[in-house]
Amino acid sequence: MLEVKNLTKHYGEIKAVENLSFTVYPGKIFGLLGPNGAGKSTTIKSIINVIKPTEGQILFDGKPINYQYLNRIGYLPEERGLYKKSKVIDVICYLASLKNIPKDEIITRANLWLEKLGIADLKNRRVEELSKGNQQKIQFICSVIHNPDLLILDEPFSGFDPINQQEIKNFILDFLDEGKSIILSTHQMDTAEKLCSEILLLNKGKSVLQGSLQEIKKNFGGNHIRVSLIGDTNFLDSLDEVISYEVYSNFIEIHLANNISPSNFLKKLVEKTSIEHFLIIEPTLHKIFIDTIKNEKSK
């Protein structure tokens, strides 16, 4: 279990992270979310002991994080940090050796993971010759080859097509079954919504929303519907029942006033336009993210 207590990091007068606390439990995915510059990278780098906090504690299984525990942590960075001129197998084996894996096990584990990800035929190619997706697979292997107890994934699906995204998701879910603690940092709100049981939304270094995703959706409240309309949608601006709406390619998500019945609103829509689809929905994490950050900016 990872515990972050009152984490604070200042760079002179810049407050990168301010009084941040959260817990990541075994067998759970914790979503560390926020816009660019919110403090996610600073938080992650503090956990992996790359930077020292100004204040606060980071505990792993009840003890302070130090170099002894780093071999139990796997980190997949957003930026690719592979040695591009080296062969794939050499890069994997070198990075695995830094995680204190016995030498006689390294090549076996490397070959096993290359087979699992369907790229065993690329092991003697130079990293720079690989596609972005295959380079991301190599980084993924390097982050998990030592069988870490805590896995930190920063934009793990970057560069992957839908098939490979699903493949990596399946491995992540397997890790959950093994009781590993996972931190997921991503801008893909739909992915975070599907995978995370708890989230922390950061903005300007501070927590602005935190807790179980189920409770957050419940507490966020609202009266939301999704409709597919035929024709112009500008008439929605003149309806008193509508608090706000978002137009997407194939549908519109509408936030209704709390006292408005969706079924009565549907009757009103039918009088004004043709409707192909109508659904009462709970607010998406994407919607919660946008509205929360907008509210913070307006303060």
Residue share in helix: 25-40%
Largest sheet: number of strands, sense, barrel closure: 6 strands, mixed
Count of spatially separate domains: 2
CATH T-level fold name of the largest domain: Rossmann fold
General form: globular
Helices and strands, in N-to-C order?
EEEHEEEHHHEHEHEEHEEEHEH
Low-confidence stretches: none
Main sheet: strand order? 6-7-8-3-9-10
State the name of the first-level CATH class of the largest domain. Alpha Beta
Count, helices: 9
Q: How many β strands by DSSP?
A: 14
- Overall pLDDT confidence: 92
Give a structural overview.
This protein is an alpha/beta fold and 299 residues long. The chain folds into 2 domains: 216 residues, P-loop containing nucleotide triphosphate hydrolases (Rossmann fold); 61 residues, Alpha-Beta Plaits (2-Layer Sandwich), CATH 3.30.70.100. 34% of the residues lie in helices and 29% in strands. A 6-stranded mixed sheet has the order 6-7-8-3-9-10. Helix 2 runs parallel beside helix 4. It is globular and about 75 Å long.
Topology:
Blueprint: E1 2-11, E2 14-24, E3 29-33, H1 40-47, E4 55-60, E5 63-64, E6 73-76, H2 88-97, H3 103-116, H4 132-144, E7 150-154, H5 162-177, E8 181-185, H6 189-195, E9 198-203, E10 206-212, H7 213-220, E11 223-230, E12 242-247, E13 252-256, H8 262-272, E14 274-281, H9 285-298
Helix pairs in contact: 2-3, 2-4
